[in-house]
Design a protein that fits this description.
204 residues, Arc Repressor Mutant, subunit A, 2 domains, 78% helix, elongated, TetR/AcrR family transcriptional regulator, HTH_TetR, DNA-binding, DNA binding
């Protein structure tokens, strides 16, 4: 749906306010005043401050989760194709795709990671971690049944490691790294964590 000039102005000013103050401290009154419109004009587009925040972040943040779920499914396809040895390479490939997607929508993810307290996105990283752990636990179980995995990892430890990994990836956004820096950083991160997983799980 095409945005009106009024809507574009509200989004532009709202993004600046949220980035500067975070969702909780951002002032709807200040947004409306700076945008040069009445509250009535604002409410014609968004029924609350949170609805405005959602409009700024939901398209990118929700799409990343959808793509993340597709990436998880791709690992199950390795099982049926007897290519499970390529699992870590596939994960790294998707990681590069995701970091570029994040940087294509940098401001939206900056809002999610740094400014979302008080919104449904405040636990965004945790939700990704839960998705990853749930699916990976099931994937590892399938590998064990096929005799392709020897080691085991307690779920609590699995969650801790995954949380550390995801938090580290999003540190690129929190610290305003350039895209080039971020890509180099997360690829080195992938090497580090892949070595750790290989040591713990003993893939065959």
């Amino acid at each position: 749906m095409k945005l009106t000039d009024t809507q574009k102005r509200i989004l532009e000013v709202g993004k600046r306010e949220f980035l500067e103050k975070g969702f909780k401290d951002a002032s709807l009154r200040a947004i409306v005043k700076e945008a040069g419109f009445t509250k009535g004009a604002f409410y014609g587009y968004y029924n609350s401050k949170e609805a405005l925040f959602d409009a700024l972040v939901a398209p990118a943040a929700d799409e990343l989760i959808a793509q993340f779920k597709q990436a998880q499914q791709a690992h199950y396809e390795l099982v049926t194709e007897d290519k499970t040895g390529q699992s870590q390479d596939l994960s790294t490939s998707y990681l590069n795709y995701f970091i570029n997607y994040i940087y294509d929508h940098f401001d939206a993810f900056k809002l999610v990671i740094c400014c979302s307290e008080g919104t449904r996105y405040a636990n965004y990283i945790h939700e990704l971690v839960e998705l990853e752990v749930d699916q990976t636990e099931d994937y590892y179980q399938q590998l064990r049944q096929l005799g392709k995995l020897e080691g085991t990892v307690n779920r609590d430890l699995h969650h801790m490691i995954t949380s550390a990994y995801f938090t580290a990836v999003f540190e690129t956004v929190a610290h305003d790294m350039s895209r080039e820096q971020a890509i180099g950083y997360v690829n080195e991160l992938a090497v580090f964590f892949n070595c750790g997983w290989s040591g713990l799980l003993r893939f065959k």
